[in-house]
Amino acid sequence: MDHKSVVEARAKIKASIDHLAGEFRGLRSGRATPALVENIRVDYYGSQTPISQLAQIQIPEPRQIAIKPYDAGALKDIEKAIQASQLGINPQNDGKVLRLTVPMLSEEQRKKLGARLKEMSEVTKVALRNSRRDANKQIDDSSELTDDQIAKAKEVVQALLKQHEGEVDKMLAAKTKEIMES
Length: 182
Known about the structure:
The chain is α+β, with helices and mostly antiparallel strands.
């Protein structure tokens, strides 16, 4: 049975990995994907609402995103939110649907994005290591564990860390490859 600190470490590590995956999904890679816009917040009747809750998001072509609001009155607000975001794409408004054409990335943009991906991965690895440190401290402070149980719990936490650091590296390699190919 895992000690509660191991269970907590596992949850924190999973949250860190999920956060990185979400960050990676939201990065522009030259390909259209709903993840680019679905979490952009729109001021909709006084509350900040993600586009995914206000509109249907489709990919009619590999480099185009079509956003069709459920409420036609929200079209202008969605357009403003996209323009205010750091996406760097100007939507085309035909009165019913917003269309975003995702431009190809220049070599310089790809290199900058690659550096940003590495930075985000490194931040995630630091968070993973912090989770290990916190778990090991809890394990050391636990009065109910024997020396053997403490050693075993620390081994489990270390194995978790190594496994998920490898997962971060795989995610980084896959996203870097996607960016360099697009």
